[in-house]
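For reproducibility, we list the full input for the iron/sulfur cluster complex.
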Amino acid sequence: MSVQLGKVVSFILLERFGPLVERVGTYLFEYGTNPLFCIKKFTDLPIPKIKESLAILVKYQLVTFAPNKNDSVANYTLHPNKVLLHLRYPKYINMIKKKFGDEAEVILEEILQKSYWTASEVILHVYEKLKKDNKSNVTLPALRDNFVSLVTAKYLIRVPYNEADDKAVPSLVVQDHELHMAPPVDIMELSTNPQGGNYKDKDIYWTVNFDRFHQDMRDKILVNAFTQKFDENAGELVKLLLRQMYIRTEPWTDVSNPIPLLEIKDLVRKQANLKLLNSFFDQYVNVIEQDSSNLIRKSGEASGGSFQIFLKEAFTQFAWEIVEQCVLEKFDSKAARIFRLVKLKKYIDSDLIQQQAMIPAKEAKKLTFQLLEENFLQIQEIKKASTGTGPHKSFMLFHINLENVVRMLLELCYKTLYNIMSRRNHERTVNKRIIDKKQRVDTISISMRSQGATEEQLADIEDMITPPEKEILEKIDKMMKRLNTVELEVDDTIFLLQMYLVYQ
Amino acid sequence: MGDSSEVKTEAVEEVSALELRLLELAKSNVEGISNDDIKEQIPDISLPELTNVINKFLKNGTFELFKTKDKLYYKYKDPSKKTAVKGADNEEKVVYKIIEEAGNKGIWIRDIRFKSNLNMTQLNKVLKSLETKKIIKAVKSVSASKKKVYMLYDLEPDSTVTGGAWYQDQDFESEFVDVLSQQCQRYLSEKWEESVKKGGGPLLIRNRSYATANDVHKFISELGISNVPLTVADIESILYTVVLDNNAERIVATNGSYLYKAVNRFLPSPGLVKTTCGICPVANRCGDMGLINAKACTYFTEWLNQ
Ligand code: SF4
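The corresponding predicted structure, in tokenized form, follows.
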């Protein structure tokens, strides 16, 4: 297991769940699947505390458990990648906001925060919350509809439940057909009995289906890629292809089933904003199909032709691009050129590298070996058949193992995340005094305002923060924003690289 | 590489047809031939071509130049005689044979020693002697500085030895290549932009964006940035660097030649390289403890204060 990933995981657990959970989580990360008494032995925490921590981890689905051989003891396993998903929450929330609006956004936010909830309770909770925020036009039926759309669009999913509780270690199950079946929410019941509990759906819990979000993210990457490489119309075309793909293809297959072009053409004709795509439809199809990337290929001529999307291939190419960009930024354009040359030739010796990349011998050698040292390139030594002595007895071929490089970059991403987090923490500690002061002033001014203080009094309070302090605060604020943004952007890279690995 | 060497051998063959005719003519006239003779016997030859060949022959010793009555004559000199150099002893013959086998790629002195089993002083003497007799020559190789290779005197060194147009006295002209590469890229992108401006649908735009190496060659020649004459093959290898930089793509046209076009990437630059850590040269040594750590990192501080 990756050390860097472990550090990030510990950090996230510490920040969101506190030191106890962090210790249990870190132990499970380091030692893998383990039963309670082992955790006790190594962490030296009191049993109730460990149980509490495990309960939290299980609740947030970061830890799963399975019975041991004779069904008496549960073994706990931590899922580090799930912990990492915490960083992606803002993205998920934003996606839902864009697609379903503000109310759905709040629903998702609440469920993310609690990990799982029954439909009735979350609807009631959101209703109260929005009303408090003076969003008076919110209604229970509207919220219920929002919730149901999230379920039918598979963004929410049924939580497995315990069927037979005679076992020492419960086994949780859920039937496939129940996963996306809308819950029975009785609006009447909710409105007449908002305090009650014990609603019709009281044992039906819902949680967030991250996979569904990742599918959206994947599609968006594809559409953006085609937009960037060709233009918006090409992007729209791919968007429609993906949409039609889902009618007949499992979302995570390597290659989509053939999609009839006529269907797409029909859709384009109906959309007023796609005029340009409509008039040049065949040309766009041609250009994309003939492109050397070969991600969308014709699979049949029948009824106007049909096309397949090569998803696995797409993310392999994207991974290449990312790696190439990293080489470019980490080294220079010459190194990137060498890297791409090795990629195109698969195996190549150093003489050919300098010749074809047109880089002076010395520089080419230096760069090649730098790339080798940082594991972007690999070397294969081939002995010459004639066993002479001297420098020519063997020659070296350079090549690239993409999967290795991707894993290495992923590692670098984790390290970067960790560095960003610890730097943020550090800045917070260093500036603790002033941040605290600001917070105090803010609370005072809020409470004074609610007591009806005059503008003058409020200004006096504000003045407790001196201009130089204000300046520092602004600087900290800027820094934190920057760190947060870049953290999300690094996560984008992680997503892309993981996508490549998922398809392998 | 394959393509450029092909072009070169083709060119050599073409010339040799002419050379043969000229050789025939000279061999049959032991007294020597004048320019007028040549014009009479081989009328379909252009003057510059002729001068080229004659110059070459003069240089490699196939022809001798002499003057009678204010007129220039060329006389054929049998090169096979050269091998039977007067006073050539066995060692010289052995070394000559080894060098001859190496062809126009030449052979390194160490390898000659291994193959000939002569000791260094002996070998040096032989080489010196062959060199002064203009039977062999030493050529500096570009692949390793200070490394000399030997080949027969009248051979044109292979481009792997001289490096071709990109070398000036064994030095690779890196900047020159960079400038050319940039210009080629510029040409392709401008061509693309123009076709986008002209419009007419994506297919037309794409097809109009393609350029052949000849087009680019013409453009570069007209720019006049190069003071050595560049061949189309030279431009072809420059264009390949643009392809390698992921700024262009290359496809094979129906007639077998290459077409080039500027391209975009699929992805914007990844988030990882926007951080200092993603491009940090000492990332491997950066940890929680020690001098290099995220809290005290100056790269990071600079980036935060930007
Ligand atoms: S924190 Fe600084 S030293 Fe460490 S990896 Fe990042 S940039 Fe490099």
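The longest strand of chain B covers residues 63-68. The longest helix of chain B spans residues 2-28. Both points were considered when choosing residues for closer inspection.
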